[in-house]
Amino acid sequence: MKTPDLSSHHTVNLSPPALLALGFLGLIFIGSLLLMLPIAHQQEISWLDAIFTATSAVTITGLSVVNVGEAYTMFGQIIIMFLLQCGGLGFMTFAILAVMSLVPGMGLKQQVMAQESIGQTSLKKVSFTIKAVFLYSLFFEAIGTMILTLAWLQDYPLGDALFYAAFYSVSAFNNGGFSLFPNSLMSFSGQYLVTFTISMLYIIGGIGFLVLMDVKKHKRWSRLSTNSKLILSTILGLNLGAFILLWILEASNPQTLGILSLGDQALNAWFHATVPRSSGFNSLPLDQMTDASTLVTMILMFIGGGSLSTAGGIKVGTFIIVLISVISFLRREDEIRLFNHSISETTTFKALAVVCITAGLIIMGFMSLLILEPDHEFLDLLFETVSAACTVGLSRGVTEELQPASLIILMLLMYAGRLGPLTLAYFIATPKKSRLKHPLTEIQIG
């Protein structure tokens, strides 16, 4: 009788998109179970409340159907922090870190999977990049915790100030947008240190880890990669442009900036110009902002932050590639150029695909909410849809009023919005070429 080989084992071969999708689903499932434990909540919550909160945390969105500070105990809030951290750094990063800690070296297949998941072009840089992502996150979150603890010591005991500071640092750096206060950060709209520190955390988190590594390594603008120059200059331009525009649009609005001093106006205009990058906090009542400011906010939410960052949206690199592609076509240029470098057609098609997929998600989700919620305002539902699909977390105050079917739509949007562009990148990484060459044809455009 043949003795079975106990050392042999069966492996399940999953594609990177499937592994990533199942990983996030697993985190949502585990998080929901933990949030439903009696020690995790101090008021009655439903399974839908727990699943929605876990989905919003894992997808680093920030939408919530309950007051997190009142509904959940400290244990529940720590669970939310953990889900935010896992969602922000990415399931793949944590998975690969776990593998690296268990085995001396990574196999070629695991390295390729890691390479695709973080967008790195060199297999040798995968391990270094993932370690840097983890260390950078801990570093900036620790700095944020120290500053916010000092700022809140005058209002809260040391233990409470430290916990609030840690929670908001994790939530801000990961662009999660979860708040322990019922009105987000509106109570701190005049506290410069708190508001500015949180804004810098989500801005840095939204730049992208590869850009941060590039800046640390080269330290000079001329030596930075084309990608880093693009991300930094675009984010700076968007932030400054939105800051000026929102200040002008809201300066005379008595419900928002109109009642504040000049300094407080500048601070809160800056905060709301940068917050749509994906963070989900607000220091002003969003439902009282003008329609023009709301439109600007939705455009900024759609664009999002940098690639391989904790931000959502289509990403600023995608936005700029599509923009300069249109400009190059109008100018009849034979190539798309950026910082004296040409952009490949594959990159252009990829950017266009990401825009179309995200826009498609928004249209389908918005149409569903319009059908399910006929009593709510058109603009409120559109804002909610864009916020969910782009994993931002800003709301005009309608999330808690939506019926269960609408909340399920929002959960699907958050999940798809977090996975969509990443999954697309996986498929594009392994192009399929046909041996057949088909004849050209002309299609009328415009």
**So how many helices?**
17
Number of strands: 2
In percent terms, what proportion of residues is strand? under 5%
Q: What oligomeric state best describes the polypeptide chains here?
A: single chain
Summed up, the domain count is: 1
Secondary-structure-based class equals mainly alpha
Q: What is the C-alpha radius of gyration, as a whole number of Å?
A: 22 Å
Report the sheet with the most strands, covering strand number, pairing sense and barrel closure: 2 strands, antiparallel
Distance between the termini: 75 Å
Shape: globular
Q: Encode the helix/strand succession as letters.
A: HHHHHHHHHHHHHHEEHHH
Mean pLDDT: 85
Low-pLDDT stretches are: 6-10
Q: What spatial order of strands do you see in the largest sheet?
A: 1-2
* Helix content, binned percent: 55-70%
Secondary structure elements and pairings:
Layout: H1 16-35, H2 47-58, H3 68-71, H4 74-89, H5 91-102, H6 108-118, H7 126-152, H8 158-173, H9 192-207, H10 209-218, H11 226-250, H12 262-274, H13 291-303, H14 316-330, E1 336-338, E2 341-343, H15 345-372, H16 378-389, H17 404-429
Antiparallel strand pairs: 1-2
Helix pairs in contact: 1-2, 1-4, 1-17, 2-4, 2-17, 4-5, 4-8, 5-7, 6-7, 7-8, 7-9, 8-9, 9-12, 10-11, 11-12, 11-13, 13-16, 14-15, 15-16, 15-17, 16-17
